[in-house]
Structure formats: C-alpha cells, structure tokens
Amino acid sequence: MLAPKFQRPVGLRLLQTQPVWGRRPETSKSAGPGLAGWREVSWPFQGWADCYLAFNDPPGELLHITLSLVRARVLNIDRLVSVAGSMTALNLLTAVNPRHIHFFDMNPCAILWGKMLCEVVLLSSSPQEFMSRLFARNVAEFERDEGKLTFLNQDRFLARPVSAAVREETREALSDEAAPVYSQILCSYQDGTVRRGWHTPRVAPCEDRRRLCHATRSGLGSQGRLPSEPGRRLQHVAALGCSP
Questions:
Q1: Where do the DSSP E strands lie in the chain?
Q2: In the chain, which stretches have pLDDT less than 70?
Q3: Is residue 124 within 8 Å of 130, Cβ to Cβ?
C-alpha cells in the first residue's frame, strides 16, 4: 500500500491562470556563470513543451537529500513547499511527514500535470497499480510472466499493447480538470510518441542505476544521467510506500 501520509489532499498553488500554447518568449542571457548542466540563458518555462513530465533530478542526489533529512531527524514538519517541476519532491515523503504540502510553479501546465499525477497516485493501492495506470499496461501480469519490472526488461513491458480498459477506467476516475491532461498528454506517451523539442521527449518506468556517476550540479551526490540525455523516468514515484 502507499504510505498513509499520501492519502491526504495535496495543495497546489497556481501562480498563473492560463497555459501558454504559442511561441516561447525570447530568452535572455543569465547574469553570471552557471554550474555544469545549467542553461546559459534564462528560460521562461511556459507551455507543455517546457514541462518536465517525469523526474528531472539525479536519483543519487535525491537519495543524498532524503538521507540527510533522516540523519538530521527532520521528519515531522509543518509544511513541505516545493516548485512543482517534475514533482520530484514527492519522493521526500518517504522520509518526512508534513502536515501540509504546497506545490507552486511559474508554468501553469506543470501545475495541471502535478494535479493529474497526484490524483493517479491517490487512485492507486500499490506502486504496481500506479505504474499500470501511468503506462496503461498491467504491471502485475507482466511481472508474473517476466519477473520484477526493471530497467533491463522495461522495453518488453512497453512493447506490450496498451490496455484500453486500464486507460479508460483511469480517465473516468479522474477529475474534470485532470482527465484531459491524462487523455491529451499522457496517453500519447503511452502510445510511444516521441515529442521532439520537448523537455520530456519520452518517458520510461525505470532508471538504470548502474549509470550513476559522481559529477553533479550541486555537488550533493551522484547524478543518474547527463542533462543532455533524452527521456525521463518515473521509477521513484512508483517506489513510494514500497517495502525495502
């Protein structure tokens, strides 16, 4: 089962009211030198193409942050406030127990995606069900045939046909606000669409943790991939509430 702390409404604060679908605004040069992997220009982050629709943070660095909170015994807190972004902050719920959770973002599309993702989490009784709803394929059936879903066999999982039943049942269970995001954005990824020019050209269930290296943007911990690598992963959202 998912952790009990996840069975509470998540507060999402919208800083803009309408998604921007047209041409991106002009960018401007940043004021100073950035760290490796950072953009050399400021970026507006508007519209779906600018969204990170799966985690964009190195898993090793995220693990370092989580373990640092555990070691410092910063566990029961009043509020967890985070940029929505790729919703990476959800992973911190494996360590901290906030009374209130607030997500904000300058990109309204990131807020819409985050709300949909949280609704799918709350619909799911297990990590396997969560991944089944995200990818419209039955993870339990796959794992009976192929063993635990991992980076090594995920291509065979994604090669299976989309389950129209899983997709439709999930869509119907979502709110009027989240259902169009699921249908218009996520379903195309389920079908294998590669969105070239988007920050998230494709998504996959699992991360290859053997590729961890020790060069990071913040210096906090290992980085799971280079910033230039395509694709994003949803492995760590699926891990919420798993037993070790």
A1: 11-14, 76-83, 97-105, 203-204, 232-233
A2: 1-43, 56, 209-244
A3: yes
Per-residue pLDDT of 120-178, as tens digits, reads 999 999 999 999 999 999 999 999 999 999 999 999 999 999 999 999 999 999 999 99
31, two tokens: 């004021």
223: burial class by Cβ within 10 Å (0-12, 13-18, 19+)? buried
131 SS3 class = helix
Q: Which two tokens stand for residue 77?
A: 């807190």
Least Cα distance to 183 among 195, 168, 163, 197 occurs for: 168
Enumerate long-range contacts of 39-48, CB under 8 Å, 24 or more apart: 44/106, 45/105, 45/106, 45/107, 45/110, 46/19, 46/20, 46/106, 46/107, 46/109, 47/19, 47/20, 47/21, 47/22, 47/107, 47/109, 48/19, 48/21, 48/109, 48/185, 48/198
Q: Give the tokens for residue 173.
A: 């269970």
Sole residue written with tokens 């991992």: 150
pTM above 0.85, yes or no: no
One-letter amino acid of 156: R
Length of the chain: 244
